[in-house]
Design goal:
Layout: H1 3-9, H2 11-39, H3 45-72, H4 80-112, H5 124-199, H6 201-220, E1 226-228, H7 229-247, E2 251-257, E3 265-267, H8 271-286, E4 289-298, E5 301-307, H9 324-337, E6 342-347, E7 353-360
Parallel strand pairs: 2-4
Antiparallel strand pairs: 1-3, 4-5, 5-7, 6-7
């Protein structure tokens, strides 16, 4: 990666380090001024600004080059000893260059400010050695900052990827549920319509309308994973209307939705698999199904309850074999809400199964 391209890509990180360097400049000037005030000496503003300013400017100017070097020759997945020797060699060049530029820039500035050069650059070779230890520390300090930023960037990117994968998984499961749902009762409904079309054309026509409305809504929401409780109940009512076309008076589903809950967000197709499960087992045991759906809002949570008159759970134990719909609902809730949701199944006193779901409510 070329230097200019790299700087553009890491502009934010480089800017942060430069701002740290500027902050250190003001801190150092403040320390020098405070010392002179404490000792009763004359405050030499120009001298401080030249000395600390040249060091700061050379230092911050070197940051993009150091970051580029660290990126081109990382320690990770490289032979440790050769890489360490490379870093030590670069730190020597860095210290020499830093000191040369710093003192080279001070000379003309001292002349302009009419500051005497006497004694300031005597024994410059020893100053190179002294300054090298300072720049050696600066070199490794910048490296540590670079590594911390790299780790932070890596964790952010991994977090974003994890979130994207989680969303993709939820969406995939929703699509799988929709794919299963479409043919699952579509052909059964067509058979029902076929049987009614001559005996009860009006009812067959109503069933076709319900079927069309239901699938139109499913197709509309296939790119989303959430919608309002009111929309979910409308979708569920359409599904129930279709199923009543098959089972007629043998199927009854009650709805009790609080006004406070209607505008809250809820996962799409949350109730359809649960009602499908209720119809399947209740019809199998009793040849009729009486189910209810209740949604309430309390303590910043949605409380969703589905009850039926089916066989319930054998021995009050969680079923080891669950239908794909019920499993998908639980899996989607787990991935979306993690530990913030509750999903419970229990047998009712008078028979049947009670499913209660709680999760955070959002508009």
């Amino acid at each position: 990666m070329k230097l200019i391209t790299f700087i553009k890509k890491r502009k934010q990180d480089i800017t942060i380090v430069i701002l740290i360097g500027v902050l250190l400049f003001f801190i150092n000037v403040g320390i020098l001024v405070s010392e002179d005030i404490a000792e009763g000496n004359l405050i030499k503003w120009v001298f401080y600004l030249i000395n600390e300013g040249t060091g700061m400017l050379v230092g911050v100017s070197s940051v993009p080059f150091l970051f580029y070097f660290f990126n081109r020759f990382p320690f990770e997945n490289k032979p440790f000893v050769p890489t360490l020797l490379l870093y030590m060699g670069v730190s020597l060049v860095y210290g020499f260059s830093f000191t040369t530029l710093m003192y080279g820039s001070r000379v003309p500035l001292y002349h302009l400010a009419d500051i005497s050069l006497e004694g300031k650059f005597n024994g410059l070779s020893f100053r190179y050695l002294m300054e090298y230890f300072k720049q050696f520390s600066t070199f490794w300090l910048v490296y540590m900052i670079y590594r911390l930023m790299q780790e932070s960037r890596k964790r952010r990117e991994e977090a974003v990827k994890t979130a994207e994968l989680k969303q993709l998984l939820v969406q995939t499961e929703l699509e799988a549920l929709q794919m299963r749902l479409n043919p699952h009762f579509f052909f059964n409904t067509l058979n029902t319509i076929s049987s009614l079309i001559y005996d009860d054309p009006k009812k067959a026509d109503q069933l076709i309308i319900h079927l069309g409305d239901f699938f139109r809504k499913v197709l509309q929401v296939q790119d989303k994973s959430m919608h309002s409780v009111q929309e979910e109940i409308t979708l569920t009512r359409q599904y129930v209307a279709i199923m009543k076309g098959r089972f007629e008076e043998k199927l009854k589903v009650d709805f009790d939705i609080s006004e406070a809950a209607k505008r809250k967000a809820i996962p799409i197709l949350l109730f359809q698999p649960l009602i499908e499960n209720a119809i399947q087992y209740s019809m199998k045991q009793n040849n009729y199904c009486h189910a209810s759906i209740r949604v309430a809002y309390a303590d910043s949570q949605l409380i969703c309850t589905v009850e039926d008159n089916g066989p319930g759970m054998e021995g009050n134990r969680f079923p080891s074999q669950m239908g794909i719909g019920l499993h998908t609902v639980m899996s989607r809730l787990e991935r979306r809400y993690n530990d913030e949701h509750q999903f419970s199944l229990q047998n009712q006193t008078n028979g049947g199964l009670r499913i209660e779901i709680k999760f955070p409510a959002h508009d």
